[in-house]
Amino acid sequence: MKSYTAVCFFLAVALILFPLVSVPKAKDTFSANVSGESVDEDAAYDTEEQTAETNVKVMSAASGQVTQMPLREYLIDSVAAEIGGSAEEEALKAQVIACHTLLLYKKANKDSNLGDADISDTTQKLLTEAEQQEKWGDNYASFREKTEKCVAEVENKILCFDGKPILAAFFAVSNGKTENSENVWGKALPYLTSVDSPDDKLSPNFTSTLSVPEEEFKKKLTEKGASFGEKAEEWVGECELNSTGTVKSILIGGKEFSGTDIRSIFSLKSATFTVKYEGGQFIFTVSGYGHGVGMSQYGANEMAKKGNTYDEILLHYYKNAVISTEVQS
Predict the structure, then answer these.
(1) Which residues pair with 280 in a beta bridge?
(2) 20 to 30 A Cα–Cα from 65, which one of 21, 101, 115, 304?
(3) Can you point out the beta strands (E) in 151-297?
(4) How far apart are CA 242 and CA 178, in angstroms?
(5) 312 alpha-carbon distance from chain centroid
(6) Can you tell me the distance from the alpha carbon of 57 to that of 93, in angstroms, rounded to the nearest whole number?
(7) 92-96, 203-207, 241-245, 324-328: which range is least confident on average?
(8) pLDDT at residue 39 greater than cutoff 70
(9) Lowest-confidence range among 28-42, 152-166, 294-308?
(10) Are 286 and 273 in contact (CB under 8 A)?
(11) Are 75 and 86 in contact (CB under 8 A)?
(12) Cα angle 124-129-132, degrees, rounded to a multiple of 5
C-alpha cells in the first residue's frame, strides 16, 4: 500500500512539473518557426541577432525617409556608385573596405540630424540595382557579378586606428599628392596624411577649366565680404600654397579666402587651381577632382593595374591604419 501511494505521489509531481519545463521550449519553437520554415531554434536566434547588427539604415537627404537594407546590399550599391564595376578587382575590394569602414565610423560618431539612421545618402552615394542596369547596360551582368564577388571576399574587413574604425575618406582624382586632413577639415588625423599618387595625372579628368564672367565673379565674392575697385585685373592678389600644391589662401577683393572656400563658392572640382583675368572673364584652371583627402579612386585603380593588392592600396593611402576584422568597443 505504501508503495502504491508513493508511486501516485511521484506521478502527480511529474504531471505538475512537466508543463513548466516544456513551456519555454514550446515558446522557442513558435518564435523560431513563425515564418513557417522548419529551423533549429538556436540557429534562428543567432540569425535574428546577426540580421539586426548587419542591417544598414540610410536616410534620403531629399525626402528624409530612412531605408533599411542588408549590409551586403549596401556595400554593393555604395561601391557601384563610388568606383563602378569596370574597376580592377583589387581596387574594388579596397573601395568595399573603405565604404564599410566609413559606415562604421559614422555609426560610432552619430550625427544628431540623422535620427534613427546610420548614414545619409549625401555622405555615401548609393546606386540601386535598377540604376546599375541602366548605367552599365550590356556590361551589367559581368560588372554586377564582379562587384558581388569582391564584396563577399572582404566584407568582414575594416580599417582601424587604435582599434577603432577610421574616417575612411576617398575621392576621385588627386593633383599628384593626396591632402592632409587638417588642410581641408581643420583637424589632423594620423591616418589621413599626404602621400604621393602620381598616376592620377594620367586621368582624363585631371585638368578642368571654368570661366566666370567678371560681374558674376564680383557678385559672388562681394556676398562673402570682398570689396572691389574698378580694375578687374587687380582684383586677385597673392596666393599661398600648401605643401601638397593646393591653395592654402588667396587674396581677392582685399579679403583672404581659403582654397576650399573658393572651391565651394565656384563649385570647382578641387582646391588646386590657378586663376587669371582675360577678356572680361576670370578663368580657373583646376587639377584633380575631389577634396583630396584619403584614397584616390583613380590612383587605387592604377595601383591595382600594376599588381598591387587591396591591402597594399589601402595601407598606402591610409598611413598608420591597420586592416582588421575586430572593433574595440
Answers:
(1) none
(2) 101
(3) 158-161, 164-165, 170-171, 207-213, 236-241, 247-252, 255-258, 273-278, 281-287, 295-296
(4) 11
(5) 19
(6) 22
(7) 324-328
(8) no
(9) 28-42
(10) yes
(11) no
(12) 80
User: Which residue is listed with cell 571654368?
Assistant: 210
Cell 574604425 maps to which residue? 165
Greatest extent of the chain over all pairs of C-alpha atoms, in Å: 123
Q: At what angle do helices 259-266 and 214-222 cross, to 10 degrees?
A: 120
Helix 297-305 / helix 310-317 crossing angle, nearest 10 deg: 140
Quick check: 42 pLDDT over 80?
Answer: no
Measured in whole angstroms, how far is the alpha carbon of residue 204 from the centre of its chain?
24
Q: Which amino acid is at 73?
A: E
Between these two residues, 13 and 105, which has the higher pLDDT value? 105
Q: What integer best gives the mean pLDDT of the chain?
A: 86
Residue 21, Cβ neighbours under 10 Å: how many? 8
CA torsion angle 29 33 38 41 (round to 10): -40
Contact 321, 315 (CB under 8 A): yes
Rg over CA atoms, the chain? 28
Indicate the DSSP class of residue 40: -
Q: How far apart are CA 15 and CA 12, in angstroms?
A: 5
**Cell, residue 104:** 562604421
Q: What span, in angstroms and rounded, lies between the C-alpha atoms of 27 and 22?
A: 9
Average pLDDT over residues 180-207: 97
Residue type, 102: L
* CB contact set of 229 (below 8 Å; sequence gap of 6+): 235
Alpha helix (H) residue ranges in 55-128:
71-82, 89-108
Residue 274: beta bridge partners?
285
Residue 41 makes CB contacts below 8 A (sequence gap 6+) with 28, 29, 31, 32
Angle between helices 129-136 and 71-82 (to 10 degrees): 30
Q: What grid cell was written down for 55?
A: 542591417
Q: What is the Cα–Cα distance from 109 to 167, expressed in whole angstroms?
A: 10
For the chain, what's the residue count? 329
- What are the strands of the beta sheet with 119-120, ordered from one edge? 66-70, 55-59, 119-120
